[in-house]
């Protein structure tokens, strides 16, 4: 959910404001597929490793969103940019809640 908002913010922001992020969508989809479709003897250990990698990507994207929010707070722009920043501010706490819950459930056991 954060990556499309970051993409929209990058497209809407003026040239003077740079929104830097990497799109990890393909890698995340691959990890999720491997988690779901995994088979074999040590699958629980492998799933835990894959899930940790997926959560690492989520942390990176949350960091991109935080930096984008901080950058836009310094230089407010047009209505579309401010609307997208407001959506990011709404979604970011939910993403942190998802991370905490998944970390406790999967990584910590």
Can you tell me about this structure?
The model has no long low-confidence stretch (mean pLDDT 88). The chain has a domain at 45-109. With 109 residues, the protein is mainly alpha-helical. It is elongated. It has 4 helices and no strands. The chain starts with a helix and ends with a helix. Helix 1 packs antiparallel against helix 4 (79-107) and helix 3 packs antiparallel against helix 4 (79-107). Helices cover 78% and strands 0% of the residues.
Topology (elements, then pairings):
Layout: H1 2-12, H2 25-37, H3 43-74, H4 79-107
Helix pairs in contact: 1-3, 1-4, 2-3, 3-4
Largest sheet: none
Percent of residues in beta strands? under 5%
- The percent of residues in helical segments reads over 70%
What value does the average pLDDT take?
A: 88
Low-confidence regions: none
- Count of helix runs: 4
Element order: H for helix, E for strand? HHHH
- Class of secondary structure makeup: mainly alpha
Q: Which radius of gyration do the C-alpha atoms yield?
A: 16 Å
Count of extended strands? 0
What form results from the Cα inertia axes? elongated
For the termini, the CA-CA separation is: 26 Å
Characterize this entry briefly.
The protein is mainly α and 109 residues long. The chain contains four helices and no strands.
Task: Provide keyphrases for this structure.
109 residues; 0% strand; mainly alpha; 78% helix
